[in-house]
Structure formats: structure tokens, C-alpha cells
Amino acid sequence: MRILFLGDVVGRSGRAAIVQHLARLRSEWRLDFVVVNAENASGGMGLTGAHAKLLLEAGADCLTLGDHAFDHRDMLAFVEQEPRVLRPLNFAKAAPGKGARFFAAPGGRRVFVAQVLGQVFMKRPFDDPFSAIDAALKPAALGGAAQAVLVDVHAEATSEKMAMGHWCDGRASLVVGTHTHVPTADTQILERGAAYQSDAGMCGDYDSVIGMEKLEPITRFVTGMAKGRMTPATGTATLSGVFVETEDATGRARRAVPIRLGGRLTEASPD
Predict the structure, then answer these.
(1) How many domains does the structure of the chain reveal?
(2) E strand intervals along 7-157
């Protein structure tokens, strides 16, 4: 199976890049399944129902969220109505929606997608992500119930993400980090067949501070005080993520390639 995971979509620029490129990439790269992390797609924090529909219509099969999952109140109801949008498994016990589910893929195949939030350096104490993902993966055996399993680890600490990668190795086709908006250079296939990358990066304008216009975050670092609101940068976005090719019989990854397309970063593609 040919799978594309794209990192955090940031603001209007990131949304425009998805709309501009994703349908073409699905055709040219012969993609079977696409997951997009969209938790910063609306105003740089959170996701609205309207923008979720836009990204799904552009070619995403599944949207994952993160710690800003419900910054826009309409997502509380939308996530219950739209099964293709996943919030983190361990966000809160009473949170609406689901954190993991099976999806149909071409040829009668099934893809299982799950998302967890990290605990280290996060602003609030989320539930244990390791026990949450452990329980979620039990009905999604690779090569059996699922031909591919994808895990989005939305976390700050690279050590926590790497630990999650090894924890899921042998049970997942891809374990990929999101949240920091900076793509890492550690794309690899782990010992038991899981593709891994500590952070997919963002789909946004890299002439910025992690997707935000530069002046306000720089001011906050220099003075220790906020002067205004953080606003997403509006220059040309780079699509960032990881492409994975898996074996249907086992669900193991046989190829993993970091993706950088357009904008300011060096371009790379699966071919």
C-alpha cells in the first residue's frame, strides 16, 4: 500500500497548499491512503468544520487533530458527525469523537489510524499515551484485521516520540510525530518493520516561527511579554510529511521517504 502522511496544516497558507497539490499527488504518486494532521488549519490553532470539509474534499482520507482539537467549538459536534476526523485517544475521557478507527482502502483493504498526545512538556497532563495506544491497537493486528496501521504521536519531546515508535514497532506500519512543526531527519524503518519519523513537519509557510508571523513570537522571546496575537504566516507553504510503502501481507513498511514539496525547503518525492 502507498500511504502519505502530511504534518500539521497551519492556517490559510497550509490549507491552500493541500487544495493545490493533494489531488495531483494522489494521482501521480498512486496513493492508496492519505492522512493529514489538521489541528492548526484554522487561524493557526484548531480546526473548524468548514475547513475540515475543505481538506477532506481536497483528497485527505483522514484528518487527525491534537492538543488544540476543540479550540473551535463547532468541532465538538462536527467530530461526532464526521468519522474521518480523529481526536487524540487520551485527550479526555469525556471528549467527543474517537481517537482511532478502521478506514476502507482500495482493493478491500483496511487501514487503522490512531492518534495519541504526549505528556512531556505539554501544557496539561493528558492520560498515559502508552496504555491508550496499547489498548487501541489490540483489534488491529497487522496483516490480519488491518493491512496498514498508522499512529500519529502529537508531542513535544523527541524522546517520548521515539519511545512510542519502538513501543509500536511490530504493531504499526508508520509511527510519526506531529506538533513541533519542524521536520526531522531521522526517517527510518525500525527493527520489526514500522516506519518512523520523529516529526513530519508542517504544511505551512516556513518563512516564519513554526508557521506564525515572526514579529510576535520574537517579541515574546526578547521581552518576555505578549504584544499581540499570534497569526499564521501567509507566504507560500511547503508540504511536509512522509511517504510509506507497505506490504499488504504483513503490514510492514518496506520504504519510507520524507516529503518536502514547494515553498522554502529542499524538495523530495517518493520517486
Answers:
(1) 1
(2) 8-9, 33-37, 62-64, 85-86, 100-105, 109-117, 148-154
> What is the domain extent for residue 198?
2-205+231-261
Catalytic annotation, residues: 68
Q: Write the DSSP symbol of residue 142.
A: B
**CATH number, domain containing residue 71:** 3.60.21.10
pLDDT tens, residue order, the chain (271 aa): 999 999 999 999 999 999 999 999 999 999 999 999 999 999 999 999 999 999 999 999 999 999 999 999 999 999 999 999 999 999 988 999 999 999 999 999 999 999 999 989 887 788 899 999 999 999 999 999 999 999 999 999 999 999 999 999 999 999 999 999 999 999 999 999 999 999 999 999 999 999 999 999 999 999 999 999 999 999 999 999 999 999 999 999 999 999 999 988 877 778 7
Q: Is residue 49 part of a domain?
A: yes
DSSP-assigned states of every residue in 211-254: TB-SHHHHHHHHHSS--S---B--SPPBEEEEEEEE-TTT--EE
Does the model's pTM come out above 0.70? yes
- How many residues does this entry show for the chain? 271
